[in-house]
Write a structure and sequence with these properties.
This protein is an alpha+beta fold. 17% of the residues lie in helices and 41% in strands. It has helices at 46-52, 59-62, and strands at residues 8-11, 21-26, 30-35, 41-45, 53-57. It has a 5-stranded antiparallel beta sheet with strand order 4-3-2-1-5. A hairpin with a 3-residue loop joins β2 and β3 (30-35). It is globular.
Length: 63
């Protein structure tokens, strides 16, 4: 899966704040995500994040 920094992703699981929208801050073996609802940041293994992604909005799509 092609993930880049500053892409916005929608995950299947909701965050406790109610948001499903996240921004990618770091890409590698682990992926760092920032919740767009409350600003909470977390790092998860790439395989787990790829299973949870429902939709990817890249920088080009938002322009």
């Amino acid at each position: 899966m092609d993930l880049r920094i500053h892409d916005k992703v929608e995950l299947k699981k909701t965050h406790p704040c109610g948001s499903t929208q996240w921004e990618i801050l770091r890409v590698g073996m682990d992926i760092k995500l920032k919740c767009l609802g409350c600003g909470h940041e977390l790092m998860l293994p790439r395989a787990k994040v790829e299973k949870w992604i429902r939709k990817i909005r890249t920088e080009e799509e938002r322009k």
